[in-house]
């Protein structure tokens, strides 16, 4: 697969994901997963934070500017 083709399956995925997350009510977000004890909000925050962390390390390894990954921009995700 050519590098440009690697992103083709992801086209529109962000918008679709945001649409699903945006449709969750406060009650949905506060629902607890009893196996972990985490709320849906906690799980989504953890996933977002993990993705930001992975993006930081990938950008750093590739030699890109990582100055946009300031803690004040990312710490509120799990709030």
Account of the protein in words:
- By secondary structure, the protein is mainly α.
- 57% of the residues lie in helices and 5% in strands.
- It has five helices and two strands.
- It has helices spanning 3-6, 13-22, 26-30, 40-61, 71-74, and strands at 32-33, 38-39.
- A two-stranded antiparallel sheet has the order 1-2.
- A hairpin with a 4-residue loop joins strand 1 and strand 2.
- The termini are far apart.
- The relative contact order is 0.09.
Q: What's the topology here?
A:
Blueprint: H1 3-6, H2 13-22, H3 26-30, E1 32-33, E2 38-39, H4 40-61, H5 71-74
The residue-averaged pLDDT reads 80
State the share of residues found in helices, binned by percent. 55-70%
Major β-sheet strand ordering: 1-2
Quaternary form: single chain
How many β-strand stretches? 2
Order of helices and strands: HHHEEHH
Shape: extended
Descriptive key words:
79 residues; 57% helix; 2 strands; two-stranded antiparallel sheet; mainly alpha; extended
Task: Summarize this entry quickly.
The chain is mainly α and 79 residues long. Helix content is 57%, strand content 5%.
């Amino acid at each position: 697969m050519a590098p440009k083709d690697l992103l083709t399956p992801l086209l529109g995925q962000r918008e679709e994901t945001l649409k699903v997350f945006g449709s969750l009510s406060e009650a949905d977000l506060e629902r607890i997963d009893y196996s972990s004890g985490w709320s849906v909000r906690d799980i989504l925050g953890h996933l977002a934070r993990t993705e930001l962390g992975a993006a930081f390390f990938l950008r750093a390894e590739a030699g890109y500017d990582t100055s946009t990954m300031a803690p004040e921009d990312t710490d509120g995700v799990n709030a």
